Structure formats: C-alpha cells, structure tokens
Amino acid sequence: MISRSDAIHLDDRDPLGHLRERFSIPEGVIYLDGNSLGALPNHVPARLQKVIVNDWGDGLIGSWNTAGWADMPKRVGDRIGRLIGAEPDSVIACDSTSVNLFKVASSAARASDRSLILTDEGNFPTDVYVLDAVARQHEKTLRMWDPTDGSPIGDDVAFVAMTEVNYRTGERHDMAGITARAHAAGAVAIWDLAHSAGALPVHLADCAVDFAVGCGYKYLNGGPGASAYVYVSPGRQPSFENPMTGWWGHARPFEMSLAFEPHDGIHRARVGTQHVLSLAALDAALDVFDDISLEDLHAKSLSLTSLFMDLLADSVPGLEVVTPREPHRRGGQVSFRHPNAYAVVQALVARGVVGDFRNPDIARFGMAPLYVRHVDIWDAIQHLLAVLANDEWQSEAHMNRAAIT
Ligand SMILES: *Cc1c(COP(=O)(O)O)cnc(C)c1O
C-alpha cells in the first residue's frame, strides 16, 4: 500500500513539480477536471489586462499590426504545433473544435468518391454529429467502427475520423497504427486531439496524419471557450478546400476582391476574424509549456494515473475501472463506473475534489500533469473512500442534476 509520504516523495522528485505554483488553484481544492476546463495560469490575467487596456484601449485599430493581432492565429498555431509534432506552418488556431472538424471532414469527403466514413463508436457526440452532417451532405454513410476488433478498412472508405483519447474511458487509440491502416486502404486519417495535446506527446508528422483538430481550453489551459486549432499536413494543404470560404482564408484578404482565392498555405483553413482576447489568453497560457520536455509531461501523466488506479485497486477492489491499465493505451484521465456516479461526483465536489460525471454511470478524473501532484491523488482517494463508506452521495443535494456537470 502506497503511503501519503510515498506520494510526497514522488512529488519531490518530479521534474515538473515547480510548475504547479504557476497556476491559481483555490486553497482546499483538488482539481481533477483539467481535461474539461484547464486551470488558470497566474500570469494570464495581467497579460489580458495589457491586451485590453494598452493594445485595445490605447492602440485601437493600429494594434492589428503593432500588437501582433494579425499574426496571432498562426503564431499560436505554431506553438501548439510543437506540442503535437506538426510541421511548421501546418497548424492554425481558430474557431471551435466542432467547426474545425467540419472543415477538414468536408474537404476529405469532397475529395473522395468512396461511400463510407468510419469513426470510433465511443467518439464525442459533437464529432459524431458533425461527421453525420458531412456524410449526408456528401451522400456518404457514417459507420461506427471499433478499431481494435480487427475489422478491416475497406476500399470503400473515404476517411477515418478518430479521437485519440476517448473522453469517457480515457482509452488511447493507436494513432500510428490506425493511420497506417487507413493509408494502406487508400483512405485519409483525421484525428481529434482534444484529450491528447498538453497531456501526452503527439507525433502528427511522424504518424503521417492528414488532418487533425483539437481544443484550446482543456489541457492547454486557454480558458473557457478558447480558440481551437486545426492541422492540415503540408502535403494536403494545396488540395484542402475549406467549405466555409471567409475573407481570412483568402490569399489577400485586404484586396477586398469579390472573387474568392484561397490562401496557398494553412491560412486557407480560416474563416473570419480571430478572437483576439481569447487567443491572447491561450497564447499566454502556452508559456507554461515552454522549455518542458513532453516526455517528462507524459511520464508524469502516466505516474499520476497509475497511482490513482493502484490506490483504487487496493482500497475499493470491486470498483469497475474502465480506463486501460497498459500505459500506451490510456490518456491523462481515469474513469470508473458506479451506479450512482453522478451523486458520488457531487459528494466529492462538496469536499473540494473536482472531477466530473459522464452519462450514464461514469465518474471521470483528469490529471493535468502541469499542476496535479501525487499527493493530490492520494488525498482524493481518501475522500472517495470516505464518500463511499459513509454513503454521503445519498444526500438529496447530490442527487439533483445541474445543467452543466
Ligand atoms: C471537448 C471536445 C470537443 C469540443 O468541441 P467544441 O466545438 O470546442 O465545443 C470536441 N471533440 C472532442 C473529442 C472533445 O473532447
């Protein structure tokens, strides 16, 4: 059995341990929901204040050039590109994950006369809704698919769209293997990195991924509703057709020509004006990733999730953990099933341990490696044991569902 001082000892040896003090986590809170909304880095408010007061207030329209607003989507995109193993000039920060998925899936659908689109059965609902719309618009069929059951990718598949880490179970799919299988069948591979970037290293270029999208407000800590990003591989850029042809995707937006001519690089994935304030927060938040090794980040993530699973197995042996044990098969979260998962999560929140609930019976705990400590995991498990032992979750207040959980 691992003791609390063992956990503290792990924190003392953690090469990323010093980063926690760069985040504002309220006293008494153990925050295990950074996979839903990343925590606030301390320096972000002052940076936003400067952008608002100096750049907007004083600089006014001139700040498009003097404060770097015009370059922001590309600059932030390149910074994210380092975290996801992308080639330079192949990532742009813009819009939301759903919108970006629509763009790349539409382009892939339009470019193919094959009839099928495959996605993983456990994919996030917005991804499935978007893919279904794309399928209907291009007269194709969306088929739910289990990449692990050995079923082949046929020569009628236009593209495979996967989320690398399952939002519910934390299972990580084999990006290199599935992409290679798609390519061998003549299909294109699209990956959603919403639960990957910032928690584990991603190797888009090495895996020869065609298109990818991801989220700015989860492990990247860009703040509520932060800009998402889209990756179009250098080889796919010339033929990438954005279904939403807005002026910021134009080769020369300020010529104000009425004829649309796409930018010849990654800017063609853009639509309208960037969300400058939100991008400024994301840009600042990414500073925390400067100078850290993604291997250290991944090692920390695995160490936190395995500690959580070890402690659970030791202390609540009957609990059904749905997250895979093998390190290469899981992302940065641990989930378990409980018939009263919603109420259990609420009882934990009342104790300051913030995880979340996902329908129908999943309690989910995200372990953002930049600011969660091993001792937090140890303490969270003690709270969980107390909640389960005292049936605390049965209180009336914990049974009523809030609108956003
Ligand atoms: C969080 C998440 C999204 C979010 O999409 P938005 O359009 O930014 O709201 C999309 N896909 C997956 C897999 C997610 O986890």
Provide a descriptive summary of the structure in words:
The chain has 405 residues and is an alpha/beta fold. The chain has two domains: 4-16 and 292-403, Alpha-Beta Complex (Aspartate Aminotransferase, domain 1); 47-289, Aspartate Aminotransferase, domain 2 (3-Layer(aba) Sandwich). 34% of the residues lie in helices and 14% in strands. The protein is built from twelve helices and 15 strands. The chain has helices at 4-12, 44-58, 63-66, 72-83, 97-110, 125-137, 175-184, 276-285, 294-315, 341-350, 374-389, 396-399; strands at 23-24, 30-31, 40-41, 91-93, 116-120, 141-145, 157-163, 188-192, 211-214, 229-232, 320-321, 333-337, 353-354, 356-358, 362-366. The strands form four sheets. A seven-stranded mixed β-sheet has the order 4-10-9-8-7-5-6, with helices on both faces. A four-stranded antiparallel β-sheet has the order 11-12-15-14. Helix 2 runs antiparallel to helix 8 (276-285) and helix 5 (97-110) runs parallel beside helix 6. The two termini are 33 Å apart. Bound molecules: pyridoxal-5'-phosphate (PLP). Pyridoxal-5'-phosphate binds at residues 96-98, 124, 126-127, 163, 167, 192, 194-195, 215, 228.
Descriptive keywords:
Aspartate Aminotransferase, domain 1, 15 strands, globular, Aspartate Aminotransferase, domain 2, 405 residues, four-stranded antiparallel sheet, 34% helix, binds pyridoxal-5'-phosphate, alpha/beta
Outline:
With 405 residues, the chain is α/β, with parallel strands linked by helices. The protein is 34% helix and 14% strand. It folds into two domains: 125 residues, Aspartate Aminotransferase, domain 1 (Alpha-Beta Complex), CATH 3.90.1150; 243 residues, Type I PLP-dependent aspartate aminotransferase-like (Major domain) (Aspartate Aminotransferase, domain 2, 3-Layer(aba) Sandwich), CATH 3.40.640.10.
